[in-house]
Amino acid sequence: MPELPEMENYKRLLQERLAGRVITGVQVEREKSINVPPALFERSLIGTSVQRMERRAKHLLFHLSSSQVLVLHLMLGGILFLGTAEEKPERTVQVTLSFEALRLYFIGLRLGYLHLYGEREAEAFLSKLGPEPMEPEFTAGRFAGLLRQHKGALKSVLVDQSVMSGIGNCYSDEICFEAGLLPSRRCQQLSEEELERLFHAMRHVLSEATRYGGYMDMPLFPGDRLTGGYDSRCKVYDREGEPCVRCGRLLERSDVSSKKSFCCLNCQR
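Structure for Formamidopyrimidine-DNA glycosylase, as requested:
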């Protein structure tokens, strides 16, 4: 599932390519992927332009000239592709937005969605999300205070979107490895030094993953050499049986609160 770095990468790349462009066509192949009747969805979008892109947690927001907002959550299996009809990948598309010959394909939205809201509706919809972990005002002290409030396992709390927004299965494991902590550790048992280390590990991992385009396996557009660049840099996630980059011991899968989790039982404590 795309997490903060993947959606931040999409946001930046789409901002460069779509800002100011007018939506000239809309095609909905799956009604369940949207929240209003297809005819209304089409009428509301055609003729409007994308003013700016925003990311909130794992959501991507398209702010339109009509003061409405498209809220996208890709969920598991969802991806985006921007190109012409001839360049479209052989994948099932649920929604297509056309910008003359250029088209934005929303692919794999079986669990995900593309909802249309007014600005206040969008704010209300996203209001239950926790703070953004990369915002400057989200300090180490605030981070520690949030984690101390929870008795659960570290991984479970890191992926809880009401605690902090944007972190999922992949980056929770990478953050724990960077900090040298087991994902199964209980938050209230962490020392001040461990919480400080965890905070800086989180900032480092999310920043580096965003810089390298996240771990998505398909380019956003033809010639895109950034998207997916972090996949080969993941140190533990989905690498069960591979040697640890620090100590050489084989990495293990050890599920935490029914969530798959990967770690090094030698390097992480």
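The first helix runs from residue 4 to 18.
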